[in-house]
Every structure is written in C-alpha cells, then in structure tokens.
Amino acid sequence: WTSRSGSLVKPWLPYAAGLFWPVGWAVVGRVTPHGRDGSSIESGHKFRKALGDSPYFHGDTIGPLDLSLFGTLKSFVHMRSPPASAVLNQCGLRAWYERCDAAIALTFEQ
C-alpha cells in the first residue's frame, strides 16, 4: 500500500468490494431459514415446553439461554412489536420474561 499504484488503488478498494455484495447475499439468502422453521408463536411454544416448571431455562438461576432470549425479546418489546407481545402472552412466557427483567435489574442495581 505504500507504492504509487497501491496509493491509487486503496481509496477505490471499498467501492470495488461493494460490487460483490450480491454474491454474498445470494449465498446467505438461500441457506438462512428465516421463517422456514415456523412462526414466532410456534417457537414460543417450543421455548415454553423447554422451560417446563423451572423459573429459568438453567434451573433456579438465570443462565446464558435466558439472557440471550430475554435480550432479543426485550428489544422487540421495547419497540412495541405485536408479535413479541403475542409470544409472551400466548405462549405463557410473560412470567419468565418478568423474572428475567427483575433479575437483570437487581444485577445492575448492585
């Protein structure tokens, strides 16, 4: 990049690389199962079944799966997403969501 030709090419390289974005999109778009694995309600019922009678997915304490799912749902609930609210209400995950919210709030208060 220190040569004369390198200094001429370097400013244009990001634009040239940008021309190849359709290739990546075509590959990822064909293998990504967005929506093909069921609706959000179906996924919510699967999560509810996996939760069982435990307060959290990892038992009595909040764990990585709880944090991941809660963080995802929290962002959509914050944006007032009707499907996110439907998952919480129709799948019986509202109590779990509120427990996670309280547990995380306690963590940040300390």
Mean pLDDT: 87
Order of helices and strands: HHHHHHH
Major sheet: size, sense and barrel closure? none
What gap, in angstroms, lies between the N and C termini?
50 Å
Number of strands: 0
Helix content: 55-70%
Low-confidence stretches: none
H/I helix tally:
7
Cα-atom Rg, whole angstroms? Answer: 22 Å
Query: How would you describe the shape?
Result: elongated
Description:
With 110 residues, the chain is mainly alpha-helical. Helix content is 68%, strand content 0%. The protein has seven helices and no strands. α4 packs parallel to α6. The mean pLDDT is 87.
Quick summary:
With 110 residues, the chain is mainly α.
List keywords for this structure.
single chain, 110 residues, mainly alpha
SSE order and pairing:
Blueprint: H1 4-9, H2 13-18, H3 21-31, H4 40-51, H5 64-78, H6 82-90, H7 94-109
Helix pairs in contact: 4-6
